[in-house]
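Assess this today:

___
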Amino acid sequence: MFAAEQFLKNALRNHPDGYSVAKILAQAFNAVEPGAVVKKYLREHPLSVEKKVFALSLGKASCAMIQALADEVPLNDSLVITKYASPLTVEPVIVIEGNHPIPGSASLQAGSAAIKFVSQLTQGDLLVCLISGGGSALMTAPRVPLEDLQTLTSALLSCGARIDEINILRRHLDRLKGGGIAGLANGAQIISLLLSDVVGDSLETIASGPTAPDPASVADAISVIDKYDLRDRIPASIIPALSETLKPNDVIFEKVQNTIVASNSVALRAAQVQAELLGMHTRILDLNLQGESSVVGKELAVYLRKSLKIMPRSFCLLAGGETTVTIKGIGKGGRNQEFALAAVDVLAGLENTLFISVATDGEDGPTDAAGAFVTGDTAQRAKSLGMFAADYLLNNDAYSYFDKLDQLVKMGPSGTNVNDLVICFAF
């Protein structure tokens, strides 16, 4: 089980209620530990031992997921595509570390390996796919030059496009996405176990749906480009290369079973149970947070401030989802850090409160932090150092702001990935 509690205790060591906060967050992380949820599923739904079993594990949680599978089921062959490899006792296995969040040459290598791996299957085989967040970038077989795909991905990330919108384009530009793996499996039976890192848990969005049908069309992909006015910012190859994907009525999916084994809602409910055990009043506000981080973060902070007048202390408000950042400055940060930064001025002066936003994979944007936390005295402490939240928001520089205050949450890669967690406390 992922030792989230100790990491979080270290991150919150300077907060008087850091122990309770860490315990609540740890329960959220541990409830979606990839190995544990895979084993639970397999013990409740044993796999057929009459077929040859092959395993393709894709995403940030892929090492823990395939180790759990191999502990329960003998494998004929396996391929792991991940961001950070960890030691495995799986045989036989090939492990490839792809590139993330922008696909690179290693992602291309991973895509070629996946095509070769799936091509060996026959109708009598069973392919177990273990899919988690990050898979869209970690593995690619693009219909355009890699450099063009990288340019498109960078443009989408910088303009604030949602992950479901980004993945619509990825699915229509890649042989392996939008049911692509299922289409290449030569009629083998496929069981996919998914760790959802997307709002709404849509199968086609998780890692761009390598074994899921795609309800979106080429026209939908073009509408994303036009929504963000990207035609002049992306390579000319992109739009002509958009190709239709496999749809829900395709006969291929008669032999495919997709099951979500863990999600953000599981994590939030585990946190809620732990908070109640600690004597707190709790409320889950939203399982589907979306929108601009700086806007949604401020709105949630306003809700916390209003709740102080109507809810008895101590209480805990929970939310989850994935917001976006439209990059306008040259600073450093991620969506969770910016989300927290937007709460600073709203919560200024409030006693015994804490507002924390973290990425469950342990990585927020291109930084070594999972997120950040805010207390009622954050604004005053920052002011004493000549720092004002509004200035840092304008420059998208949340990391620098919280780093100087020692209020970043640093825990390293967690090994799981089920969307962001936002928890507001009043003690």
